[in-house]
Amino acid sequence: MSCSIQPASFAGDAAEAEAALDLLILGSSKAGKKLLKYPSATTPPSWHFCLPPHFNTALGLKFSQKQKVKNKQVAERWKEWVQSGSFCFSEGSIIYDRDVCGLKTWGEKLASIESYVVIGKARPVSLRSFKDEVTDLVKTKRDPGFVTFKIYVPKPTLGSVCIREVTATQDEFVKFLISGKLLT
User: Fold this and answer.
1) Which of 46, 70, 95, 138 could staple 14 via S-S, CB 3.0–4.6 A?
2) Residue 179 gets which letter from DSSP?
3) Residue-range domain boundaries for the chain
4) How many whole angstroms separate alpha carbon 149 and alpha carbon 118?
């Protein structure tokens, strides 16, 4: 029995990431086959916001152990990155439109960015159980959660100014991080 790391397919740019996101939201059987971003790097430059690897969990990326069973025995084990639609961005997170990881001071960060968001409130994506009135069976439905966030822009004399406060689903928020476009 071997244990290896399997290579994953990932979106190389914002357009591919949006297409993969749409499949995730729709619950397509092809969902999870393509990662929204390469896990050990920041997002591609075509994304509107920069998500370093410490946002992988919030973006639904997980390093999972997989196994193949043959004749009721584990024949092969491996680890691979998988993409889910279980987004869980949380309050207090700050996301910049540029990679600011190497910058030490707030002044350096403000000088290098055009905008950033601060999450004030959030509820992760989850599955909700409900009783189907027709069949009397208990079913589950995906709850897209929500994110309330403020968009800030730097101003030379003021530091930064909030230009908008938005409440969106976690799905809409991820689409905003990719494209910079708000649906609400």
Assistant:
1) 46
2) H
3) 3-179
4) 5
Q: Max Cα separation, the chain?
A: 70
Token digits of residue 55? 């946002």
Residue 169, classed as helix, strand or coil, is coil
Whether the Cβ atoms of residue 152 and residue 116 lie closer than 8 Å to each other? yes
Q: Which of 76, 59, 77 has its CA nearest to residue 21?
A: 59
d(CA 173, CA 125): 12
The rounded distance, in Å, linking the Cα atoms of 113 and 58 is 22
Residues 6+ apart with CB under 8 A from 49: 43, 95, 96, 97, 117, 176, 177, 178, 180
Q: What is the pTM of this model?
A: 0.85
The type of residue at 43 is T
- Partners of 14 in the β-ladder: none
Q: Tell me 174's DSSP state.
A: H
